[in-house]
Amino acid sequence: MIDYITGTVKYIHTDHVVLECGHIGYKINCPNPFVYQDEIGNTKTIYMYQHVREDILALYGFENLDERDLFMKLIQVSGIGPKGALAILASGKPAQVVTAIENEDEKFLTRFPGVGKKTARQMILDLKGKLPNWTDTLFDEKPETSVSPQGLDDALEALVALGYGQKEIKKIVPQLEEQERLSTDQYIKKALQLLLN
Length: 197
What we know:
The protein contains eight helices and five strands, in the order E-E-E-E-E-H-H-H-H-H-H-H-H. By secondary structure, the chain is α+β, with helices and mostly antiparallel strands. A five-stranded mixed beta barrel has the order 1-2-3-5-4.
């Protein structure tokens, strides 16, 4: 398995980042590709998970090993595939997910796209007591330095890529528009907070 790739960030999309290493561009699916927005043209190390199935070969990338470890735990749960696990991690607060599992908070877990009561119960059954005591300090948010005029539009596209419906997204758009001009990453994080409340 590929453990990590260090290369140049070439460009980002709503659901993936392309990292060039040895003249090869690797398409890497990420929880929130916009965290690499300020890294375009820079060298970056991304920790990998290689997903192989009969009809699929896909790469999933993470900013740190803790995030990857949680992803690998989530995909072991019946009913959660790699895309579902990415949507959960995209909340930007993996420690909240761990806390919800440990506290058997089904209501919080069912707020994620694709997670119904049955899957939430399965997450608790399979993972409670088996996750490290992760805290928010393991998932510190990086300070935002750039502001994109297209930030809100890109963020809304990213929410669709994460599996949220147009109806859900439409409800939170007015609250997002009230915000001061934010970067795409900040808009995504704010939107996910609103969707999970």
